[in-house]
Queue: 3 jobs
Job 1
Amino acid sequence: MNLHSLGKAVRTAIRFLERRPAAGRPRPTAPRPAPGRPSAPRSAAPAGTAAPARTAGGVSGKYPGDFTGAASAKYAPAPNGKPEPGEIVWTWVPYEEDHSQGKDRPVLLIGSRGRYLLGLMLTSRDHDQDDRGGANYVDIGTGMWDRQGRPSEAKLDRILQISPADIRREGAILDKKRFDAVATALREVHGWN
């Protein structure tokens, strides 16, 4: 058994234990997901509290807009069932031109600011030969986040602010070497620490 498998087993056990109702209390019922959409976010609301309301756009509350400015890229994945920098997760990504629309995409978590996680959208489209934006992408290769095994690139020119409640599922943990390549590019493009 490798560390990745062990970490996955621990996260699964934690999620199972978090969802068990306390003795004597009925199990809360969850709303059914819309057709074609993943089920619930990876962490449920604590017992006795309401789950966050979801907008038509797929995020809880209103999307706060893309992050601007500088922050610190931080590599801190942990097998604890919580989304953390260094992990690739699936979440709703609003379109740049209309934040009320978007789609579920893989996102590399790169840091945090206040109550939001900061992330970079991943794409399987190759931008190396693209005159318009090749410098805004970093190759990160293949991983378990893409079922078809396609190479991915992290998009540097748009930094997403993501509520942890809006994370749908984990895709993988990116190794530190590839994460450091993305962090170096963020320092060059955005002046991050």
Job 2
Amino acid sequence: MKKYFKIALLVVVAAVFIGTFVFLYKKSQPKVTVYEVVSPETTDLAKTTVVTGKVEPRDEILIKPQISGIIDEVYKEAGQSIHKGEVIAKVKVIPELGSLNSAESRVRLAQINAKQAEVNFSRVKKMFDDKLISKEEYEKSDVSAKQAREELSTAKDNLEIVKEGITKNSASFSSTLIRSTIDGLILDVPVKAGNSVIMSNTFNDGTTIATVANMNDLIFRGKIDETEVGRIREGMPVKLTIGALQNLSFEANLEYISPKGVEENGANQFEIKAAIKIPNNVKIRSGYSANAEIVLDNAKKALTIPESTVEFKGDSTFVYILKKSDPVQTFERKRVIVGMSDGIKIAVKSGLTAKDKVRGAEKKDKQ
């Protein structure tokens, strides 16, 4: 029994020893690395940048009153089309007491002067009819009477303007009727009946009655980083996508690049504007967020490989070309001259042919 036990123990020890030897032997063997192999492709490359921004009318006109007062009525609302000269709202004038008192006093004085001038003219006319005075004196008195009547009329008009902001003779040109100055679409009417408004002057911009814009002339406005602004120019085509309009893209034309940058979040940003071509069957609202794609550089029918297969060292670039694959892969390091990249693929100008096979990423599975 002891004999069999010893034999079994020896067998176990031998098995452990052999297993350990095999394991250590395998661990000591060099690992064979297998790589993906990539063939160069002839294709078109385009280096693009995407600028975020908004779509807005080229010009938004702020309609402001020419007189201070209180909104009496509002005739239009946001979203309505409007023509030049159409009335948007009516302002009721609240007269200033000092101006009102002065205007009333001017009317009373003009009435006194006009009455006296009429009396004087009646006397002069009678004397002229009796041939007691010359025609020249008669004409002078006539002119004085006319001037007094005109002054009275002017004083009354002035009083009406102070009280009502309008005269009967100039109702069609009234400053109390706020009119649109252009044809377009009303984007906003920020006032309501009863709101106080003030006219624009040296110290105040005045109250905005409405914002009107021509929605047939839209632009994209965004900002581009200083690292890319030097590669764009006026006149370049722009592809525009609007978040609110899925699966639609629009053509645009770059027409403005700001000559001065503005620092934002530690980087200099330059404003750009692009005129948008809008189809007649598409409705775009002011303020839509949009992305503008601009082609910074392109290469036609270039020999390309994945940029991840290129080794960059100093000013030089290298690739590893497959020499043989059996029994193990063998690669040769070769210098190449590369061109533009789109971030995924890179163009190879020289040092590589379409027949070559380039080492790619390492395969996960061991062979």
Job 3
Amino acid sequence: MRGSFLRIALTVDPELPVPPVHYGGIERIVDMLARELTKRGHEVVLFSHPHSKCPVERVAWPGASSRAGRDTMRNALTLARHVATGKFDLVHSFSRIAYMAPLLAWPIPKLMSYQREISPRTTGLAHQLSRGSLQFSAISRQMLQVVPLAGTWHLVPNGVPLQTYAFRADVAPDAPLVFLGRIEEIKGPHLAIEAARRTGRRLVLAGNIPAEHRDWFDTRIAPEIDGERITYMGPVDDAQKNALLGSASALLMPILWEEPFGIVMAEAMACGTPVIGFARGAVPEVVADGVTGFVVAGLDEMIAAIGKTGSIERAACRARVERLFSAEAVTDAYLHIYEKLLARRAGRPSSAVAGEGHR
């Protein structure tokens, strides 16, 4: 870096605390990044839900909803007020880009990290208003296939804190398959059940049921749960997730949408558990086919792959996470971008970022 520590304003949407108790992928990433930056001596001020417990300096958002216009205005003004007086080196946003609207024309370096679908129109306007002081990052190459995208884009995948997930070199011969995620149709839990039934394997389902998908769960999933071959744990915390994933023969990822990343895949591999996922979204980027699991075209190929999980070395799964998806790797990548942003403001030349997306 620059030979000195940074003071960073780090933001996330207001709906969930950091870290979250159960679901909340973005909040987990922000918590991991804030802790690792602090560990390295940087000063982080986190703008987040009032009940956040991340051990850094925190500012509570006054607005509770990222989709309400009045709350968005209140949160944007809160961020602007603190940035104006807080002597920050840069702003790193995982929240709505609208929260940075008052800051866009300010010269302070800004990074907007996207974990959801990118709007070329919104990002293009923000780029113009920022006069280059705002850059962007995405968590998978699949996200960056939206063209054209204005401004400078970087690629930084999500990751997991390795100390949270214990590596398991071996599991029982009858270890179950696992599905972990929101219980809704696009995540494919019904396909995981079908794969388990057709292979004669036990399956453990875990995850929250969104209120708007309760009827679908009641009609498509609940009748399949027998408490023996197919079980449902409900939402799980980190300790439960570690135990569940670590004792599994494989994580099933039969997604029916272009999922931007899928942190649960990195969590499973950190435990040594291979992943079998449909070739959609970022699955082909996260899973090394034939090395840390299998990337398959559909249900029939998933069923065939379940019979080959014994060929996967669980140590290779952990090693891939250590190399690409650890807190250290993710933080290194973001610090590299911070250096680029600060060098640009100072008028210093900088080299291309390794793994940068495109301009």
